[in-house]
Design goal:
about 150 residues, Pnp Oxidase, Chain A, two-stranded antiparallel sheet, 3 helices, globular, about 10% helix, four-stranded antiparallel β-sheet, alpha+beta
């Protein structure tokens, strides 16, 4: 198949761009707002980008309503902290529930009711998900804002 991303001329029911790199792990990012509201959201555009020092990267597109930044991004930039929680197959229903677009003051740990328990992180302020098999607390390093060119070629 020949596919030009700027023309979206693939003839498929959905844009195949996100499916071109597999497997694609899901990061379940938890943050805490300045006001203390917990946020939990899945990000499929995520990966480690180094281990000495250890960096975790997640990419967030704009919020679909009003093109504002997503709550996770706002929280990370305001507080400087986030937790990577591993999203596993067993947690898929809760991960899907936490993907809903809700107001910033909604606690997504409570929204994702399937074993929603959170606990304090050992380092940093954002809570971590008790039922995740791995959780890594990180400090925010820097934002990277990709330009929106006329063509991606």
């Amino acid at each position: 198949m020949h596919y030009e991303t700027d023309k979206n001329n693939h003839g498929l029911p959905f844009n195949p761009f996100k499916s071109c790199v597999v497997p694609r792990p899901i990061a379940w990012i938890s943050t805490l707002s300045r006001e203390g509201c917990a946020n939990l959201a899945p990000f499929s555009q995520f990966n480690i980008v180094g281990w000495d020092p250890p960096y975790i990267m997640f990419a967030a597109s704009a919020h679909p309503v009003g093109a504002r930044r997503k709550d996770s991004v706002c929280n990370v930039q305001e507080t400087g902290e986030f937790v990577f929680n591993m999203a596993t197959y067993d947690l898929r229903d809760a991960v899907n529930k936490s993907a809903m677009y809700v107001e910033a003051d909604v606690d997504e740990f409570e929204l994702a009711k399937r074993n929603p328990r959170s606990t304090s992180s050992r380092r940093g302020s954002p809570p971590r998900r008790c039922t995740s098999s791995a959780c890594i607390s990180r400090r925010w390093c820097c934002p990277v804002t990709a330009p929106r060119p006329h063509s991606t070629w």
